[in-house]
Amino acid sequence: MTRRLTVAAAQLGPIQKAEGRDVSVGRMVRLMERAHQRGVEVVVFPELALTTFFPRWYEEDIAAADDWYETALPSNQTAPLFEAARKYNIAFHLGYAEKTPDGRRFNTAGFFHPSGEMVLKYRKVHLPGHKDYDPVRTVQHLEKRYFEVGDLGFPVVRAPVGGAGPVNVGMLICNDRRWPEAWRVLGLQSVELVMLGYNTPSLNQDNRGFEAHHLRVLHSHLSIQAGCYQNACFGVATAKAGVEDGHELFGHSIIVNPQGEIMAQATSWDDELITADLDLGMCELGRSTIFNFAAHRRVEAYGRITGQTGAEAPQDWAPSAG
Ligand code: CDT
């Protein structure tokens, strides 16, 4: 029997620093309404979807940034989103800043059943940027200041989603998409659908070398398309886009199939819903042939992947004596 699932990437235009959750949640509810009109069963919202990308703002005392975090979901402010999901029977992925009851802070994504129950939680592992104010940068990227490294690994769960029956779902967040190790850990759990949100600036703001602007989107798509192909899964990658607090985010949300092909792509820098009908059976070809991990992986040769963090210099070649 064909397992079909209609999914959407619900790209958000910019959310300015001065705008509250009433603004962002209202926009997300409207995207949910559009998703319902198009028969969507799963909606994927971006990373840190409820607010501006606040890690660009430095606070000496991180407690001064506490307003950006969620301590409970749903909350009074996010309740309309959960009500829309229930009303339209749509599961959804939401990126948010999480502050736990014991005061820990994570860059988190939740996958929610239409009932509002959280099916799966993921906390971002690959935090980019820096911890302290960096005077070399024109714009700060302080994820390492505001978040701890995620402590949940890369979980996958098999859960009923829409009319497809059980689906193996997993999540990555933004910078994670650039790390093949993260995709492979999901692949090793037979993931079928990877949901990921991102906030990626159009310019490399490190100011430490040249990177042509047009390569920013290429690197994002290249990473997602390769991740889906090499792990025989679908990917829904959703951006926050446009000029947020004076800083440009490149958008270009995409939905990708297990062949690595882009099935749908956003073309605006605004709130935009892109959709695709997934045939989950497409995951079978890759995982039973070229990426049949049980048949072809060679873990005895992969020791460096988990045994070493930074790159080492190779041995020097020397001509053999005589
Ligand atoms: N949010 C996020 O992870 N953004 C990064 C850009 C980092 S630039 C220091 C990304 O990989 O898209």
UniProtKB/TrEMBL annotation:
PROSITE patterns: CN_HYDROLASE
Molecular function as annotated in GO: hydrolase activity, acting on carbon-nitrogen (but not peptide) bonds, in linear amides
Keyword Flavoprotein assigned: no
CDD domains, alphabetized: DCase
Domain CN hydrolase: 5-280
Record's keyword terms, sorted: Hydrolase
Official protein name in the record: N-carbamoyl-D-amino-acid hydrolase
